[in-house]
User: Fold this.
Amino acid sequence: ESQQPFSLSQGPLIRARVCQAEDQVLFVVTMHHSVSDGWSMGLFVKEFVAFYMAWCDDVTPPLNDLAIQYKDFSHWQRQWLQGDELAKQIAYWQQKLQGLETLNLATDYTRPSIQTFNGATIELGLDAKMTQQLNQLSQNQGTTLFMTLLTSFYTLLHRYTGQSDICVGTPIAGRTQVETESLIGFFVNTLALRTDIDGTLSFENNLSRGKITTSFGNLLA
Assistant:
């Protein structure tokens, strides 16, 4: 089901199917990423459970009416991002990313001419002790855990490449208005966070740089 293509011109961009085998029932929902994001998945599951429980009890689902629809957000965004504002945004990012060089990762491979989506996924978990130590370090330095882990990633890339000017893309929720928090739709965006890692400085000093980069980047986003 997940391998079946979507037609962006004709739809639908969300499909549902119930599969049954012996005493097991599987409810499969497949969504195109243009109509959903990670935040939306939590909303979808919450609302689906609410509807299912209400159906079982033969009552009205306890869900509030939405203040706006996704099309309202889309219209607002299109009206906002044009003219002088669009030129301002483009100029900012052209200046922000000017001169950025590709990281020379020794372990990287030549990219195929056609993307295959056959890349590997590696999951890494941190134990409770390490997590506690990272949280403590973050509190001592006045940073969030995200800032600390991001700076750790910057440091790792610096040691692999020897390069100091490093830019990392990170997904952001993109829900800057409270009315969008209960909407299912595609709001997520990728924010480019560029910083300079100095191998002669301590990790704490580089963490201060990462804090400034992240805080300023979130402000712009």
